[in-house]
Task: inverse folding
């Protein structure tokens, strides 16, 4: 998609992760300090009503942010927000998307969304990008 000719609502970038394994959850927990057993211990997650551990919401948000940082690296990120709408089980992939929300003289606003491998929305958000200097 050509960014110059894109219209609001057009899909302008995608990023597909591989499956997110429990090893990645353990590394994220160590790096972030978020050692909630819901993300690390199967028995605990099962007591909470899940089949297995679930991916940290902030890890999913970071992967959504990777879409912005890799596909729009010439721009300056001025705002990034997200809302977690569902949980992502371990070993699932995320498909992260960016749609053009609006364009102004000073930059772009993107609508962001991350979906699980079944197409279920996991995270929704937005980002504001300032034009390259």
Result:
């Amino acid at each position: 998609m050509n960014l110059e000719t894109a219209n609001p609502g057009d899909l302008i970038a995608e990023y597909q992760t591989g499956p997110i394994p429990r090893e990645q959850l353990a590394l994220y927990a160590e790096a972030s300090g978020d050692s909630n057993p819901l993300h690390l211990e199967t028995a605990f997650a099962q007591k909470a009503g899940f089949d297995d551990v679930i991916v940290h919401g902030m890890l999913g948000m970071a992967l959504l942010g990777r879409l912005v940082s890799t596909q729009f690296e010439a721009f300056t990120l001025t705002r990034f927000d997200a809302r977690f709408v569902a949980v992502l089980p371990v070993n699932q992939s995320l498909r992260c998307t960016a749609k053009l929300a609006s364009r102004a003289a000073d930059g772009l606003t993107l609508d962001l969304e991350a979906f699980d491998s079944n197409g279920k929305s996991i995270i929704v958000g937005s980002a504001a990008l300032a034009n390259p200097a």
